[in-house]
Automatic annotation (TrEMBL):
<dbReference type="InterPro" id="IPR007197">
    <property type="entry name" value="rSAM"/>
</dbReference>
<keyword id="KW-0004">4Fe-4S</keyword>
<feature type="binding site">
    <location>
        <position position="70"/>
    </location>
    <ligand>
        <name>[4Fe-4S] cluster 1</name>
    </ligand>
</feature>
<feature type="domain" description="Radical SAM core">
    <location>
        <begin position="202"/>
        <end position="432"/>
    </location>
</feature>
<dbReference type="InterPro" id="IPR023404">
    <property type="entry name" value="rSAM_horseshoe"/>
</dbReference>
<feature type="binding site">
    <location>
        <position position="220"/>
    </location>
    <ligand>
        <name>[4Fe-4S] cluster 2</name>
    </ligand>
</feature>
<dbReference type="InterPro" id="IPR006638">
    <property type="entry name" value="Elp3/MiaA/NifB-like_rSAM"/>
</dbReference>
<dbReference type="Pfam" id="PF00919">
    <property type="entry name" value="UPF0004"/>
</dbReference>
<keyword id="KW-0408">Iron</keyword>
<keyword id="KW-0819">tRNA processing</keyword>
<keyword id="KW-0949">S-adenosyl-L-methionine</keyword>
<dbReference type="InterPro" id="IPR005839">
    <property type="entry name" value="Methylthiotransferase"/>
</dbReference>
<dbReference type="GO" id="GO:0046872">
    <property type="term" value="F:metal ion binding"/>
</dbReference>
<dbReference type="GO" id="GO:0005829">
    <property type="term" value="C:cytosol"/>
</dbReference>
<dbReference type="InterPro" id="IPR058240">
    <property type="entry name" value="rSAM_sf"/>
</dbReference>
<keyword id="KW-0479">Metal-binding</keyword>
<keyword id="KW-0411">Iron-sulfur</keyword>
Length: 506
């Protein structure tokens, strides 16, 4: 659905009103409009098929995709790589060789956007050198009107922009970009249908990412995701189960179930009651050593899910449970829809049912109106929960979110100082947690060579601890036993036990 207007794209720089460009394809983020959900039924499509004239369009050409942000974007990249391959393209890791370059973008933080704009600047000389090169911007940034407007105004080296809801339209977008000398913009504000039979080229054959749902309905005041990814919509369980079984048949050792709000899975089903707990129970029956999921929301973490996870087996004991803040008033400002007390009650239930659970989290410091006392409540929560690790962030406003309208009244120096104190506390706890592993034997999924030393292998335990050890390369892709001899803040080090020559069932 290319925009057809009276003003050609190449002439648009002379016009101040860029809004006309979005009349039929795009609506800017709006909390009011975005909350009007459920009006349009989401279709599950299984009839994806590449048109004959598109099957050889990429023969003799190469594609390059640079991915920013979360695992969901990595998953989207795998799908786009599959589509490119079906069109005859070959992958490359060298932009100089590429005939098509895609930047699969993240909108969650301003810094991520700045990296993309910087990369577009770097690509301009290459475009001048190779006029037939196609450059595209896709992913979450493409769903923001301010971003698309900026690209139209400033980056005329870009040939195509498309969003998160129409990745399956990539072949048609590529074709149009080749035929048209104007920028092709296809950004749908519609939530998006679920297209089941898209091709995919996965990274490696050890760990697989399986999307079980799309979108988010939580509308945390600081987060752009509900606007860029649309409403919550779940894949049918039979399609997910078959995809995981396929990975198991192909020798994958670990699967991560993905969703922007993964434990809201199934809440949109109208014909049955079926949630993440039910799905995880089915995962236990599949012959694959490890199954994880991310990212969960504390409000949707129900007792049935805890009960199923407590059964163990191939369900790992690592749970990522973003808290964001330790003070109930700030949590209310964030629209997290739970209190500190509710969160701590949930943590207590998890630890009681799964005593060896490894909990990790996300925390924001310096949210508008955060006082020193409120920040100290975050510190006290961290000490009480004893997280194994955490992703910590300084708050920065995202245009289009409700929080962006709040006064950002915590000085940057204060934010930085609080972040340092938070990280110091977390590092101390993480080191203590890791030191408890010394002289124990852990099972490690060997993922590859260490980036720092090719003679050292690296992998993760089921509790998501990174373990480095020396061993032969043929162990990559297997689960081995390692005797832990040393612990650092973020990693463990150990010696391979001689009897582990093959895969150990997890």
């Amino acid at each position: 659905m290319k925009e057809s207007g009276d003003v050609p794209v190449k002439d648009m720089k002379d016009h101040k009103d860029y809004a006309s460009y979005f009349q039929s394809t795009y609506q800017p983020p709006s909390l009011k409009d975005a909350k009007k959900r459920g009006k349009e039924a989401v279709k599950i499509l299984k009839d994806y098929d590449l048109e004959e004239d598109l099957k050889r369009i990429g023969v003799g050409k190469k594609f390059y995709i640079r991915t920013y942000g979360c695992q969901m974007n990595e998953h989207d990249t795998e799908v786009m790589a599959g589509i490119f391959t079906e069109m005859g393209y070959e992958p490359t890791t060298d932009v100089q060789e590429a005939n098509v370059i895609l930047l699969n973008t993240c909108a969650i933080r301003e810094n991520a956007e700045n990296k993309v704009f910087g990369e577009l600047g770097h690509l301009k000389p290459l475009k001048l050198e190779k006029p037939d090169l196609l450059i595209g911007v896709c992913g979450c940034m493409s769903q923001e009107e301010s971003v698309v407007t900026k690209i139209l105004q400033t980056y005329d080296q870009v040939d195509m922009i498309f969003g998160t809801h129409n990745i399956h339209r990539l072949p048609q977008i590529i074709k149009e970009a080749y035929l048209s000398k104007e920028m092709v913009v296809e950004v749908w504000s519609k939530e998006g249908d679920i297209v089941e039979n898209l091709p995919r080229v996965r990274k490696g054959n050890i760990q697989g990412w399986v999307n079980i749902m799309y979108g988010c309905d939580k509308f945390c005041t600081y987060c752009i995701v509900p606007y860029t990814r649309g409403k919550e919509r779940s894949r049918r369980p039979e399609d997910i189960i078959e995809e995981v079984r396929h990975l198991a048949r192909n020798g994958y050792q670990e699967v991560t179930l993905l969703g922007q709000n993964v434990n809201a899975y199934g809440k949109d089903f109208e014909d049955m009651e079926y949630g993440l707990g039910d799905l995880m129970d089915e995962m236990r029956k599949i012959d694959i050593p490890r199954v994880r999921f991310t990212t969960s929301h504390p409000r949707d973490f129900d007792d049935h899910l805890i009960e199923v996870l407590a059964k163990g087996g191939n369900l790992v004991e690592h749970i990522h449970l973003p808290v964001q803040h330790g003070n109930s008033e700030i949590l209310k400002l964030m629209a997290r829809k739970y209190t500190r007390e509710h969160y701590m009650e949930l943590v207590g239930k998890i630890k009681q049912a799964i005593p060896h659970a490894a909990l990790t989290t996300d925390i924001i410091v310096g949210f508008p109106n955060e006082t020193e006392e409120q920040f100290e409540e975050t510190l006290s929560l961290v000490k009480e929960v004893q997280y194994d690790a955490a992703y910590t962030f300084i708050y920065s406003p995202r245009e289009g979110t409700p929080a962006a309208k709040m006064i950002d009244n915590v000085p940057l120096e204060v934010k930085k100082e609080r972040l340092q104190r938070l990280n110091a506390t977390l590092n101390e706890i993480s080191l203590s947690k890791n030191e408890a592993y010394i002289d124990s034997v852990v099972e490690v999924l060997v993922e590859g060579e260490s980036k720092k030393n090719p003679d050292v292998l690296t992998g993760h335990t089921s509790s998501n601890k990174v373990v480095n050890f020396r061993g032969p390369k043929h162990l990559i892709g297997t689960i081995v036993k390692v005797h832990v001899t040393d612990a650092k803040t973020w990693t463990l080090r150990g010696n391979l036990l001689e009897e582990t020559a093959g895969v150990i069932e997890g």
